[in-house]
Write a structure and sequence with these properties.
alpha+beta; globular; 4-stranded mixed β-sheet; 194 residues; two-stranded antiparallel sheet; 2 domains; single chain
Length: 194
């Protein structure tokens, strides 16, 4: 497809080429981001287009890897943190979460869970540090004000769900931490602690 004076591969072909040569976790993140529906301007491609590209060009090393990543991909994964945590959670034997679960809180405020386990009414948040330091996320607030706002939001969510878990993005690099966080909040797993 043309991009100015250059010919480039389509987003679906680019994603396929990348996931064919990546391990599962980065492959899922690539697929998730390619099909992310809430991207400003819309998704780069669709899961159907990814499968169509894979089916149209079989016989490559990495096809099975791509198929596993596409089967796991979710169009609501807003960022790599969510993709990474979802892969870790699944590898730890926890149920599959919903992404971006919407809840109207008693105050009228709308909140979205990064991950949500509906059968356990378990809400999960994956924290990045930018919301407390990046001027774009601070939106005129001080870091202290942003922290208090987030704590108040969390308190309101905790009052309407059975369980609430929060971790930093880097915690997903340590599966035992995620296992401890989720099991201590009552989420069942089919596997022992790693």
């Amino acid at each position: 497809m043309p991009a100015g004076a250059h010919a480039v591969t389509s987003p679906a072909q680019t994603a396929l080429d990348l996931v064919r040569c990546e391990r599962f976790l980065p492959a899922v993140a690539i697929a998730d981001q390619a099909i992310w529906v809430n991207r400003r301007g819309g998704a780069l491609t669709t899961i159907d287009a990814l499968w169509a590209r894979l089916d149209a060009d079989p016989g490559h090393r990495g096809d099975a890897r791509a198929a596993r990543a596409f089967a796991f991909a979710q169009p609501l994964a807003a960022n790599v943190r969510e993709s990474h945590s979802r892969v870790v959670i699944t590898r730890l034997g926890f149920p599959h979460p919903r992404l971006q679960e919407r809840r109207v809180l008693p105050s009228g405020r709308v909140a979205y869970a990064d991950l949500y386990f509906p059968e356990y009414d378990h809400w999960c948040e994956i924290d990045g540090r930018a919301k407390y330091s990046d001027p774009i996320f601070l939106d005129g607030r001080t870091p202290q004000e942003a922290l208090i706002d987030e704590k108040n939001r969390e308190n309101e969510i905790r009052r309407v769900v059975r369980a609430f878990s929060r971790w930093e993005a880097t915690d997903a690099d340590h599966p035992r931490r995620i296992w401890d966080i989720l099991t201590s909040a009552g989420l069942p797993t089919s596997l022992p602690r790693p």
